[in-house]
Amino acid sequence: MSAEPTGSEPPEVLPVTPGGQEEKCTGLAGSRYVKLNVGGALHYTTIQTLSKTDNLLKSMCTGSTEATIDSEGWVIVDRSGRHFDSVLNFLRDGSVPLPETTRELEEVLLEARFYRVQGLVQHCLTALQKQRERHEGLCRIPMITSQKEEQRMISWRKPVVKLQHNRGNNKYSYTSNSDDNLLKNIELFDKLGLRFNGRVLFTKDVLGDEICCWSFYGDGRKIAEVCCTSIVYATEKKQTKVEFPEARIFEETLNILIYEKGSGGVASSILDTGGAALSPGSLHSEEEGGGAGGGDRRVRRIHVRRHITHDERGHGQQTVYKD
């Protein structure tokens, strides 16, 4: 065995050669034990642990890879010692708890690859894949803050459902149940977002002139719109009324699933042939963009009809609905 350098001399780079038995690898520490200095972090282990699988540390023991040993017999590994515990414990036990954050997992993966511990590499890759799957399964609802951002979301490869709700833009007072219905619309949006997560992009818009309006997009264009706001004309004041056409909203959400794989004109021709029956006197349906050359560009707009209350009717007069 080469003589150890004095404290004033630099560490010597030595090829490590095994003795008569693997655990007597005298080139490292003169015994079956190994002292490792990994980036300043000190570890004490055995040749047997390092030699359980083929890896960089085992190759140091067998002499295949040169090892740098200081005057006190510590093997110097010029590497960060932050995650070496994970590497060493994996060699000891064949498994190890991994960090929960993606960044730390990737750091452990880098160390496992450096030390060529293939079992730990696969362990990290499996954990990262599970994290990605959980990440993709999260239901995220982006908030639109500009026209540019809205156009970018509309051009998304998936169908898009947008709920615009802006309680603060009303210049009239609200009817008694308007806030309840607005909350019901928002609750339905959240339920649909959870149910069709991954298939449809759900987004919210708190800007604009409408108080409560649903928009449905496919192939980068608007397919349908359900406006849930109407104006109630009372004797002395106008009031804003928010409706909750739950069945129609759910139907339009199902309709845009036809655009999930970009079926284009086929989906348009199917959807433009009709729709669900509307409740008499409550919803008004119209189509825009039809005509020559625009048969597949029509948008179904479903609006709550404006109506008057009994305060404006004469005695015995029937309710009159105004478009």
Task: Explain the overall architecture.
Strand 12 and strand 13 form a beta hairpin. This protein has helices spanning 47-50, 56-62, 84-93, 102-114, 118-137, 147-154, 178-195, 246-255, 265-271; strands spanning 12-15, 33-38, 41-46, 66-69, 75-77, 143-144, 160-165, 173-174, 201-205, 212-218, 221-227, 229-233, 238-242, 283-288, 299-304, 306-308, 321-322. The strands form 3 sheets. A 7-stranded mixed beta sheet has the order 6-9-7-10-11-15-14. Helix 4 (102-114) packs antiparallel against helix 5. It is α/β, with parallel strands linked by helices and 323 residues long. The protein contains 9 helices and 17 strands. Mean pLDDT is 75; it is low at 1-27, 262-282, 290-295 and 306-323.
Main attributes?
single chain; 323 residues; seven-stranded mixed β-sheet; five-stranded mixed β-sheet; 9 helices; 17 strands; 24% strand; disordered C terminus
Number of separate helices = 9
Q: Which sequence of strands runs across the widest sheet?
A: 6-9-7-10-11-15-14
Structural class: alpha/beta
DSSP helix fraction: 25-40%
How much of the residues is beta strand, in percent?
15-25%
Instruction: For the record, give the distance between the C-alpha atoms at the N and C termini, rounded to a whole number.
Output: 100 Å
User: Which stretches of 5+ consecutive residues score pLDDT under 50?
Assistant: 1-27, 262-282, 290-295, 306-323
Number of strands: 17
Secondary-structure element order, N to C: EEEHHEEHHHEHEEHEEEEEHHEEEE
Shape: rod-shaped
Q: What does the main sheet amount to?
A: 7 strands, mixed
What's the mean pLDDT score?
75
What is the C-alpha radius of gyration, as a whole number of Å? 35 Å
